[in-house]
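Residues determine shape. We examine one folded chain.
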Amino acid sequence: MIVIVDTNVAIVANKKADHASPECVVACIERLEQLMDMDTLVLDDQWCILREYMDYLHSEGQPGVGDRFLRWILLNRASERVAHVHITPTDPTKTDFVEFPSNPELEKFNRSDRMFVAVTLAHPDHPPILNAVDADWVEFKQALANNGVRVESLCPADLDRLVSGTS
């Protein structure tokens, strides 16, 4: 399977997200291990996603599965296991892209997550974006789907709890 991974999945796999349930942590660990064993990861040629991973995945002490995921990317980024697509930033901060849909329904979509959308739309297979506990993906799920973006929620119960505001 070909996938894109939102950084929050690796952060949860590192056990660094207090709002993620133990079941969510296990789901993220298992999914990243599956990816590293048999799947293909898609990144952008501008290093936007990789830079974000490098900013957030460096646990002190014993490395977590998210840290192992980053190491796997660095070791495999030139192999067939890591695909790269071209995306075109439209601003110097690289938070908006030509490939991001020009759609009023997505105007308020998180700018820091637009790179993931741009990458999926730039790839010929439009692979799904894996998400753990980022509620923005839920809020904009239909608008994203209307634009050809699939989001795979690894922690649907946690997202339901976060979106509804219950503990």
The chain has one domain: 2-164.
